[in-house]
Task: inverse folding
């Protein structure tokens, strides 16, 4: 993984000192809240419903054990003993005191971490495939390019005050595990007809009030031109983005209104002017960053570990966990391990300080001192020997981190909702907890198969409800919490935006409604179909009938 150089260390230390001065001036009254707001946002500090919230950057979701222990320490010393993993592969602390936030940033700097550009109208934390470097289907390691973009984009003077926030995601595999089609810029590594590796570039994706799927602006871009092409896109957006209306200020609106062809022409024209500038990446610079992401010292193994195979046969619970939580690794004899932080009835994405310390110890012992945060609010151990999987599973179970539900009904994505967020219309966490309890039976979850349930507390869609197989959007109806249901969303290579299927239902009814939707799927599915496959085949009709016509007829 990447380690800071002298420039990184100096930049972060300077930023901590600058921010400390800004906080002191705010506390003394020299700065008003209006003046302080853009300054704190550039350092990841939000003012939420009850308290400040600090969002810490985890570039492309990669952490060392040392860094995770520091996060555990911060949660104990400055917060309430837990943190919340986000859909941008970051972590949030929900209860820091303003006067202590400079100390938090100083402690983060000790372990090569910061909170720069995790909020505000800037280029946000660059995300990527959490299986980067280890996925069996990978064309190129996306971490190399996410790190390159991070170095270029951090405190970029031209893009420090964009029309609105800007998000970039990178994937190195045809199977999209980074939701690149729902980002302002999505980058997909691919091979051309000559076997050369480059990138497909997509622009104009996003969720929120107007969910849109990104469109391809360039089919193939050579590696050396990545930064100049991204810069060209951002220059066009910075020039034309709507600053008069924040709801129309995203690049997706610009692409929608002007069309991808016109925007593409403007990008290409700008790129022609800068493509041979200092932004063109020399081979030695690419090689410099690649060195940070060399494959670790794997032990040579041939085929599947026999002990691992035997344990799968002997222990049903272990086999179930392997089936849902352990995808194939590119290296023979190794495995990728997903740690579900969504046990029955718990807030999705929350992890305690004790769990963080335990995870750090386990990553050190079983995963070459490295772990990843996924955009689905779970964690990944990327370097686990198959021979050690059973032992690791047992130790994870002791920390309530071995729930075999990744990609299933219990693996719910949810935003903080009205429990924390001042923008929310309804609560998300209690609904997620109730659904989790309703589908607690793991045998049942595995029988249902892949089912992505996502919950947002407001139209800003931080819970990504638009791309859930079942999406729930909290709305306020005269002071009561209701939930609008969308079906058929998907964030990956088969991207789609879910469709609203009818009137919003009350908080009391919403869990039963999810149950009924699952019953319709089970009754109508064909062999091997996921919920999404069945919905796309039969359409919304059977689901709407069950959820509304039968429900209302019974009530009458």
Result:
């Amino acid at each position: 993984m990447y380690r800071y150089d002298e420039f990184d260390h100096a930049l972060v230390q300077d930023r901590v000192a600058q921010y400390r001065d800004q906080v002191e001036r705010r506390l003394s009254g020299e700065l008003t809240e209006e003046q302080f707001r853009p300054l704190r946002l550039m350092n990841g500090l939000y003012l939420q419903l009850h308290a400040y919230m600090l969002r810490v950057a985890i570039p492309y979701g990669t952490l060392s054990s040392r860094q995770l222990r520091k996060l555990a320490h911060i949660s104990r010393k400055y917060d309430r003993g837990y943190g919340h993993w986000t859909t941008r592969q970051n972590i949030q602390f929900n209860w820091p005191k303003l006067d202590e936030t400079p100390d938090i940033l100083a402690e983060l700097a000790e372990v090569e971490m910061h909170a720069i550009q995790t909020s505000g109208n800037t280029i946000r934390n660059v995300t990527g495939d959490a299986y980067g470097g280890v996925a069996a289907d990978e064309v190129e390691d996306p971490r190399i390019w996410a790190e390159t973009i991070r170095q270029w984009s951090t405190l970029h003077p031209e893009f420090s005050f964009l029309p609105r926030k800007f998000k970039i995601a990178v994937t190195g595999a045809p199977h999209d595990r980074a939701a690149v089609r729902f980002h302002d810029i999505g980058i997909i590594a691919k091979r051309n007809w000559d076997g050369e590796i480059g990138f497909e570039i997509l622009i104009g994706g996003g969720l929120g009030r107007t969910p849109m799927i990104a469109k391809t602006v360039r089919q193939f871009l050579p590696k050396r031109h990545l930064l100049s092409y991204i810069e060209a896109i951002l220059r066009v957006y910075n020039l034309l983005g709507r600053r008069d209306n924040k709801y129309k200020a995203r690049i997706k609106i610009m692409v929608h209104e002007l069309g991808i062809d016109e925007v593409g022409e403007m990008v290409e024209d700008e790129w022609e002017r800068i493509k041979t500038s200092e932004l063109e990446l020399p081979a030695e610079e690419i090689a410099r960053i690649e060195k940070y992401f060399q494959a670790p010292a794997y032990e040579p193994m041939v085929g599947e570990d026999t002990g691992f195979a035997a344990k799968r046969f002997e222990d049903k619970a272990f086999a179930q966990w392997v089936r849902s939580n352990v995808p194939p690794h590119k290296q023979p004899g190794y495995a990728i391990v997903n740690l579900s932080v969504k046990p029955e009835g718990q807030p999705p994405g929350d992890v305690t300080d004790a769990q963080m310390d335990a995870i750090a110890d386990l990553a050190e012992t079983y995963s070459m001192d490295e772990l990843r945060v996924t955009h689905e609010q779970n964690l990944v151990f990327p370097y686990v020997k198959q021979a050690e999987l059973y032992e690791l599973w047992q130790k994870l179970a002791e920390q309530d981190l071995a729930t075999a539900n990744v990609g299933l009904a219990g693996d719910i994505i949810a935003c903080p909702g009205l429990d924390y967020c001042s923008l929310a219309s309804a609560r998300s966490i209690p609904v997620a907890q109730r659904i989790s309890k309703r589908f607690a039976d793991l045998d049942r979850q595995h029988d249902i198969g892949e089912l992505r349930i996502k919950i947002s507390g407001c139209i800003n869609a931080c819970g990504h409800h638009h791309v859930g197989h079942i999406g729930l959007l909290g709305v306020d109806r005269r002071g009561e919490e209701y939930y609008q249901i969308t079906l058929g969303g998907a964030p990956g290579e088969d991207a789609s935006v879910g469709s609203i299927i009818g009137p919003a239902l009350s908080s009391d009814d919403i869990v039963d409604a999810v149950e009924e939707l699952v019953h319709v799927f089970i009754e109508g599915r064909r062999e091997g179909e996921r919920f999404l496959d069945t919905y796309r085949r039969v359409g919304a009709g059977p689901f709407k009938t069950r959820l509304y016509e039968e429900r209302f007829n019974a009530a009458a």
User: Anything to note?
Assistant: Residues 413-555 form a domain with the Sulfite Reductase Hemoprotein; domain 1 fold (CATH 3.30.413.10).
